Predict the structure.
Amino acid sequence: MLELQDYQDFSIKNWYETFKHVSLKTIIVDLPDQLLKKIQCNEISDHSEDETENSEGEADIEKDLSGFLEQFNNALNTLNKAVFVKNNWHAPLDARMFSFGNILKALDLDDVMLYFTNSIVIQKDFANAKNAPFCIALRQWISIHPASEFRCIVVNNILRGITPRDWPAYYAHFKDDGPQIIEGLSNFYNVNIKLKFFRKSFIFDVVFQYPDAPIIVDFGPLNSKTNLYAFTWKEIQPLISKEVPEDVAPVFRYLESDIGIIEKDK
Ligand SMILES: Nc1ncnc2c1ncn2[C@@H]1O[C@H](COP(=O)(O)OP(=O)(O)OP(=O)(O)O)[C@@H](O)[C@H]1O
Ligand SMILES: [Mg+2]
């Protein structure tokens, strides 16, 4: 769970404008109270059964939501009619089994409502982030190779750690490509992120399909609850109170051997 200040700092509404030139194309639409209530009540709409009973109520809702629906549909069209959706902070990853092919692609508002109403992660955010202006962030859908997703750990404005997000998974090319990954992400951080974010210590996620430039997927807090994948909080925490030279290189930690294969060969 995020702390109250985290909800403020890490809301995509807060950081997207500054970083949009290096992030996934996103359109942010405010979430109307009516839809928020629907999500919080965990009402999963079943059109076939309550059509007659609810027709008047639904018509009213449609009228009130007409501004929102127009924005939502325009956004969807701008993003080629297929999007990845998040609230201000999270994707409904725990509801991915409700999506075709488990990939959380949304083609219309019904898809978004289905994912949001079935996601405990999303429900918790809406319950805990008091008085936040909630939103639906519609993001351009991209096909991402899991080996190209990295989480970068920034401590006191210095990039200290890089970990694959697909962890623990073995990718043979990390050994040879390691220096390129470190250099690419260090340069990217120094040019585009350093001193431009609200915090001195935080994590950011990227898709880096080199030789293409990295793309920012998300920012998040750095604390004991953060998933650091290849790193542990125990080893990162002491870095916070340690002075280091500005030019210290980040550590790229990855799985160095395929343990499964070694065991099979035995
Ligand atoms: N625009 C996109 N198109 C397709 N897949 C995406 C897109 N954005 C994210 N994903 C996939 O969904 C995963 C989760 O996305 P993201 O990191 O934005 O969610 P999150 O809720 O912030 O996760 P966490 O809680 O780990 O920070 C990514 O690792 C990626 O595989
Ligand atoms: Mg995140």
User: Anything to note?
Assistant: The pocket of magnesium ion (ligand 2) is lined by residues 218, 220 (CB under 6 Å). The two ends are 43 Å apart (CA to CA).
